[in-house]
Amino acid sequence: MSETPVTTEAARLEAPDELEEQATGSGWSLAGLRLPISLARLRPGRGVTLRRFSVVEAALLLMLGILASKGLGVVRQALFNALFGTGPEANAYYAAYRLPDTLFNLVAGGALTQAFIPVFVSYQRRGDQREAWYLASLVFNVLLVALTMLLLLGCLLTPAFVVHVLVPGYPPAVQELTIRLTRIMLLQPLLLGLGTIVTAILSSREQFLLPALATAIYNVGLIAGLVVALVVPGVGIYGPTLGVLLAAALQIVVQLPALWQQGARYVFAWNLRYPGLREVMALFIPSMLAVAVAYVSSILETTVTSFLPDLASLAALHNAYMLFYLPVSLIAQAIGQAALPRMARLELEGRYARLRRLFVQVIGSSLVLSVLSALALAGLGLLVIDLLFRHGAFDDHSAWLTNLALFGYVVGLPGVCVGDVVARSFYALKDARTPLLTNVFALLTRVALMVGLFVWLSGERQILAVSLSLSGSASAEALLLCLVLWWRLRQRQRRQVQGVGC
């Protein structure tokens, strides 16, 4: 496998390893947590796709990408609601999205990213770029084969899964539509999974511009599918369904120029005993199980919702979750994704004092921002729903039910954000077992809360059993993760000090 050397211009544009400490320019401060940022580095210019960014610069880029994505997502959802409202086609579409989304996140989503980045970073730090690209190619090939086999199996089992597990309470006609849409969407995990490797490589090299753009461009494909449904008679719900596949393809294409400029070289490698692959798998398997536990909760949510007395409940929960997840994406995902490569480098170098300070900064910032966001959503939720969604088939009852579900989610916004950031911190320490155990704890807590609230509440307010159970379990898990992380870092730093003393 050949390797293209990094050009002098590219090397000049890269920040030094201590970018976090050496970045100059205006500062960014939140609740007394000051982090450096150079605004000049965010300007467009020659070699912009090769620049490395500090944690704050990367977080800002990702936040801008997510804001653009969510802005387009609002347009997409408003158009979808105007066309399909909360009727049977909409509910079939939302239900059909569950299995492909679960498979992607289970095999190739955050689990793979969190397992791949620390190992890829360690190979880069050894200075052997040839081996680093070999590892990337090997992981890509294994993922391609695994996803292809999994999706073929998914197509075969979709009817039984939809009828007996996913939406057993739906009428047969809606179940049949859900089956057809699910089989089409099953191509999405394959496309997104391969794109995840590209995103992880660029993130490992602290280059976040095109990954941020890829986040924003995803909704362009979805909107294109809805436009087709709007202008072509008879397409109906199949328009946005095919738009899901177009969106996944666009996410890959937009990142390829930066990957090529990195001197990436693909080789068909197949060595299941390769040490780097084994190291990735050692982190990936517990991470995958943690995601699986979380998505068992998601499937359980859909199953319970199908029995709620109001048939618009699933669509209402989807709309509420979309609004709730905007600040989660902006805060937890952007900060966590930006900080993970830096955390992995600090852990690799044994700089635990600096690592603890970085943890405090990202967790403290996440907490403050999420509390402010929760207060804003609680006060302005119904107004936002009216402005964005109350059009066409989305009526007053749909708006009221969506706001009710949103209230239950908002309660747990700080817990969800902090828990996501802290979980990524454990992956930087190459510890995937702790997030797995806390996810099991959160699942058991959520089931208990959901059952209790479902019995206690009545009528249309039973929808709160779904959203409040998520809030309660996520908050409990976040607290547990913070306590364990703080203890773990104190132990590592103490052992390091004792070793130096000896």
UniProtKB/TrEMBL annotation:
<feature type="transmembrane region" description="Helical">
    <location>
        <begin position="436"/>
        <end position="457"/>
    </location>
</feature>
<dbReference type="GO" id="GO:0008360">
    <property type="term" value="P:regulation of cell shape"/>
</dbReference>
<protein>
    <recommendedName>
        <fullName>Probable lipid II flippase MurJ</fullName>
    </recommendedName>
</protein>
<feature type="transmembrane region" description="Helical">
    <location>
        <begin position="209"/>
        <end position="231"/>
    </location>
</feature>
<dbReference type="Pfam" id="PF03023">
    <property type="entry name" value="MurJ"/>
</dbReference>
<feature type="transmembrane region" description="Helical">
    <location>
        <begin position="463"/>
        <end position="487"/>
    </location>
</feature>
<dbReference type="InterPro" id="IPR051050">
    <property type="entry name" value="Lipid_II_flippase_MurJ/MviN"/>
</dbReference>
<dbReference type="InterPro" id="IPR004268">
    <property type="entry name" value="MurJ"/>
</dbReference>
<feature type="transmembrane region" description="Helical">
    <location>
        <begin position="53"/>
        <end position="75"/>
    </location>
</feature>
<keyword id="KW-0133">Cell shape</keyword>
<dbReference type="GO" id="GO:0015648">
    <property type="term" value="F:lipid-linked peptidoglycan transporter activity"/>
</dbReference>
<keyword id="KW-1133">Transmembrane helix</keyword>
<dbReference type="GO" id="GO:0005886">
    <property type="term" value="C:plasma membrane"/>
</dbReference>
<keyword id="KW-0472">Membrane</keyword>
<feature type="transmembrane region" description="Helical">
    <location>
        <begin position="320"/>
        <end position="341"/>
    </location>
</feature>
<keyword id="KW-0813">Transport</keyword>
<keyword id="KW-0573">Peptidoglycan synthesis</keyword>
<keyword id="KW-0812">Transmembrane</keyword>
<dbReference type="GO" id="GO:0071555">
    <property type="term" value="P:cell wall organization"/>
</dbReference>
<feature type="transmembrane region" description="Helical">
    <location>
        <begin position="405"/>
        <end position="429"/>
    </location>
</feature>
<comment type="similarity">
    <text>Belongs to the MurJ/MviN family.</text>
</comment>
<feature type="transmembrane region" description="Helical">
    <location>
        <begin position="133"/>
        <end position="161"/>
    </location>
</feature>
<feature type="transmembrane region" description="Helical">
    <location>
        <begin position="280"/>
        <end position="300"/>
    </location>
</feature>
<dbReference type="GO" id="GO:0034204">
    <property type="term" value="P:lipid translocation"/>
</dbReference>
<keyword id="KW-1003">Cell membrane</keyword>
<feature type="transmembrane region" description="Helical">
    <location>
        <begin position="181"/>
        <end position="202"/>
    </location>
</feature>
<keyword id="KW-0961">Cell wall biogenesis/degradation</keyword>
<feature type="transmembrane region" description="Helical">
    <location>
        <begin position="237"/>
        <end position="260"/>
    </location>
</feature>
<feature type="transmembrane region" description="Helical">
    <location>
        <begin position="103"/>
        <end position="121"/>
    </location>
</feature>
<dbReference type="GO" id="GO:0009252">
    <property type="term" value="P:peptidoglycan biosynthetic process"/>
</dbReference>
<feature type="transmembrane region" description="Helical">
    <location>
        <begin position="362"/>
        <end position="385"/>
    </location>
</feature>
<comment type="function">
    <text>Involved in peptidoglycan biosynthesis. Transports lipid-linked peptidoglycan precursors from the inner to the outer leaflet of the cytoplasmic membrane.</text>
</comment>
<comment type="pathway">
    <text>Cell wall biogenesis; peptidoglycan biosynthesis.</text>
</comment>
